[in-house]
């Protein structure tokens, strides 16, 4: 009996031994057994031994819920170990806050293959044992998503914890903050950082500033600190800043203003003004970067200015990343080159700790600053020309005729673009806007009747077509002439009674009748074709928008003999910008060719190239150039006001009459186009409005002379 009992006991021990050893393995720190056929990763028993579940089921369910942004479903799959310290509300809020800030979309989360599923402290099968004897297993996953700051993609590790409840074994997610993004810890969050792009600067050919970024003071008021001095402070600020007290009150009454908030009033660059005003109660200053235009009025129409984007501009530019409050080019090159100058702001999603210290970048891109633009403009020349014409209504263009580089381009009267950056007052804006001389009008972009300055083009067409013999002395008696009785009461008038007259004399004395007859001798077809060789009828090939030249309205041809005759001396419906006239004259120093226009380094690809080849022949260019030197050197010449002893100034005057009918009083615009024939580094084309009663074109020539004299010093 005893022996039989002993045998039975030994058998029972042998049968129980695997279970006893298995149950003790966690205690000894050895590998946990895989879940049995009766264990599932979701807590439900499995009835099919062939599908014995493991930890992958819980991982798959969790990643699937994550992809769907089912945060509650994700939380349900967390281990009790995690849930003890994290409520569902906290868990859901954390994901929602971060994902909403990033504007997450197209989230894809996938489990990585088994070879990636490693865990520190795990066995080769990927299972580890905690100090409490609970088994955990490692898994790895790959996540990709699109965000407002750019795409995010990363590999990461996680682990599941073996959990037994009511006899059912589950493998649940042992979550921690690093599951959101690698490197996140408890208390960390994601912050969106934006770095504004630095606007590209505009400089002249020598690197001198035309539009630059400088540090300035943004003056403002903290309403609660004004105390009893409010009226005095506002009055003092208004006087110093050139504002009205009403302008300050309007800013202080904005809907967002609160007593303790800083309310921006104006930007100042004068340190003395800043120091004086910040000493007042309630006035403070903040450093800001602002746009500065060193030439002010002298280059306002060319360079333009920037201002805060308005609603209409925002609609157009929003897709490009612009937002309310951004600065944008309003006029001039600031507007024309906006895309290149603006740059792209940087933005990044960064992980920061509970104190706000940046730890790492999750996604984003660095700011891409705007392009620096180097113009062919010469600021010294631009300023010198402006000083000569600032009291006039004028358009002036200056070029280097041999290369096609634009050296100066300006309009007068002008305005100070810095006022718009600093905050122009209503009174100042009203004065400019109501000024009858129209300082906001960009005259160099407009086409005007070129008057007698066009006679050079008529002469060139006539000579090259064979319709004009330069040495023929034409019989032209009297001061008026008409073709025949078909003209009725219409006639062409000249100033000097010179008879007979050849080409040289016609240019010296600017004979309208001579060039009217020349245009008729050329004929409409050849006249139009000849003008086209100078680019008339098309815009200049520059990024800056300038009016296209024309022989007749709508880009057509002169409609009859009267209009053709008037076109011969730059009247009728002929219209050109001062810059186009300058380029037409450049053919005189380039053997008849017109160089390709250049305004910036971006046009350097055209350096050495021709815009118009053989606008006139070499012989014609030499003949007309010599005659223009005589027109200035001769004391009787209408261009003698530009004469400089020791120089060979070649030039042509022009007076364009804007009258309702013959014999009536009306506006006259004066022209002078000139260059030094022996040293053609500079060619100036100047037009001044309303020269009637001031000597006509003779008012203009001395101004060009003084500019040449200054530049040669």
Main attributes of the structure:
single chain, 713 residues, Nuclear Transport Factor 2, Chain: A, Beta-lactamase, five-stranded antiparallel β-sheet, 23 helices, 30% helix, elongated, disordered N terminus
Architecture (CATH level 2) name of the domain at 381-431 and 446-707: 3-Layer(aba) Sandwich
Q: In the CATH hierarchy, what is the class of the domain at 381-431 and 446-707? A: Alpha Beta
CATH topology label of the domain at 381-431 and 446-707: Beta-lactamase
Q: Low-confidence parts lasting 5 or more residues at pLDDT below 50? A: 1-53, 118-127
Work out the strand percent: 15-25%
Task: Count helical runs.
Answer: 23
Major β-sheet profile? 5 strands, antiparallel
Shape: elongated
Radius of gyration: 42 Å
Mean residue pLDDT: 88
GO molecular function: penicillin binding; peptidoglycan L,D-transpeptidase activity
Family: Belongs to the transpeptidase family.
Region (Disordered): 31-56
Pfam family, one: PBP_dimer
